[in-house]
Amino acid sequence: MRVKRILFKVAASVVVIVAAASVTFFAQLAVPGDRATTLMNLQTGQEKKWTAEELAPLNEKYGFDDPILAQYLDYVTGLFRGDLGTSYTQKRPVTEVIFGQLLPSLTLTVAALAVAWLLALGVTLLTVKRGRILSGLGSAWEALTASLPHYWVGVVLLVVFAVQLRLFPIIGGTTALGTVLPVLTLAIPLAGFLGQVTRDEFVHVLEQPFVTTARTRGCPTWGTAAARPAARRTAGDHAVRLGARRPRLGRRHHREHLRPAGDRAGAGHRGQHPRPANRVGHRAGGRGRVRGRQPACRPGLRGDRPQAGGGAMITKVAMITKVKVRAPLSIGTALSLLFVGLVLIAAIAPGLLTDRSPTAIDLASALQPPSWQHPFGTDDAGRDLLTRVIYGSRQSLGIGLGATALAFLIAIVLGFTAALLGGVVDAAITRVLEVAFAFPALLLALLVIAVRGPSLYTEIIAVGIGSAPGYARMVRGQVLAVRQAGFIEAAAALGHSRFAVIRRHLFPNAMRPLVAVLTLGVGQSIVWASGLSFLGLGVPPPSPEWGALLDAGRLHITTSWWLEILPGLVIVVVTLAVTALGRTLQNRLGGAAR
């Protein structure tokens, strides 16, 4: 049985690889322009209109004139032989180029993952369940770092540590010192996402009954009995061994075990020989066991009153039903609402926030640093940067909303179709999603832009298609979960039609928890779109779209830092505010599906 499962997985992987290669082949056929002309331009370094006689050798060498089916079969057979062709730019086999960059790429990836895990685990251990202030600071740090675009983090680190302080080289190279900034560029945003997962897992474990039991027995909250299960689920055994050595995780738990019998929590009668306190998970007495000093937040108990020695006989534990009370909006959520409201005003009526024109050129005021007259400074054409940021919010927010709506529309169609029809249809859609996951989302977006050309609507389509596979998988899982609920079966048993059950019960209850994900997706789409524009693949200049502003500021990164830092900071704050609203909706709608 296990061998069949392994063979099935291998066969499915081969199908996914062939499908991904097929998508790549047919996508490059859809790119506008003649392939032989493009290749000749790359080889000669000049762009002009070539004659058919000049292009004939290339067409014959690469088989561009052969039938499409023959080209495809030659491409697939070459793929299985390990022949990936020749790099047009480096004039070397592609396999040689890949293996030449494989070790540095793996080293950079592993180092970034290690640094991200250490940052995430360290912040979690220092802040979770440490009081309201520390917990709030830890959550704010994780939300902030998770909202940072990688490219902007790299720019900030480069400007501060390489250009201004000159601690690291501007061009990294292969030296150990040159890899510090690239590793931090990848690790800092990743640490935010990992920190959020780690914090949720720690909170989940600390609320488990065995941890509550350990507290009632007098064990410290951060004893290894509570810390290790959470750490194992998030960072692995190696992080557990590192974390358990810090004070209050290891030493305090050790002192709890070796405390004198009369003072130790869970100790027996006086004169009893010292023995370790019963650890969580070990067999302990049931009714009538001795209970040590209890915290003030213990559950309600019924039974005998405490006896001599500070102990009490537990006979019954009254189950307390928690009544959910909707908490008021926090300060962070209120500030997020206020900032998102300002961005909406800027997108709808930018004239209410500024009386300047985003296209007014004043060469005499070019590249001025931030001042009272120009709070964000000016660009190389003397245009007020704050005004351009305000007017650019319409395009950036429009891209975020449009791309997220498109992604969820595709996800709803694919997810509901797969979950409701099941069988062959579900398997086929799942394979399609796996093929899409085989491509990095950025590569999918680049594919769309290469076919359609850079524009505002192309950017919306590119970001939407790149985000859709992940949302489709979430929708499918949510529909499958709600479909098995009792009220769905009850509605069907009462005689409601299949369409009525889907429309009245399945669709609303499956979509309600995903509203928060939809909100979170808007912020991520804004970051994605600005990243494409930063690479010069988004809305072309002189558009004031936020990513285009960052792209224009790259030319002056060593002399005019505000052109990169301040628009990027606006992107970070907007993403952070939208993420905070999404988290609030997630908490309020998480258990509301009925």
Automatic annotation (TrEMBL):
A Pfam family per the record = BPD_transp_1
Region named Disordered? 249-308
Principal localisation: membrane
UniProt record similarity statement: Belongs to the binding-protein-dependent transport system permease family.
Q: Which organism is it from?
A: Phytohabitans flavus
What are the BP-aspect GO terms?
Answer: transmembrane transport
Q: Locate the ABC transmembrane type-1 domain: which residues?
A: 393-582
The protein's matches in Gene3D superfamilies, at most eight in alphabetical order, are given as: MetI-like (1.10.3720.10)
The answer to whether UniProt assigns keyword Signal to this entry is: no
Q: How does it sit in the membrane?
A: Multi-pass membrane protein
Q: Where is the composition biased (Basic residues)?
A: 280-292
UniProt-listed SUPFAM superfamilies: MetI-like
Q: Where do transmembrane segments lie in this chain? A: 7-31, 106-128, 140-164, 170-194, 329-353, 399-425, 432-450, 514-539, 559-581
Naming one, the record's GO cellular component terms include:
plasma membrane
InterPro entries documented for this protein: BP-dependent_transpt_permease (IPR050366), BPD_transp_1_N (IPR045621), MetI-like (IPR000515), MetI-like_sf (IPR035906)
Enumerate the UniProt keywords alphabetically. Answer: Cell membrane, Membrane, Transmembrane, Transmembrane helix, Transport
Query: How is this protein named in the record?
Result: ABC transmembrane type-1 domain-containing protein
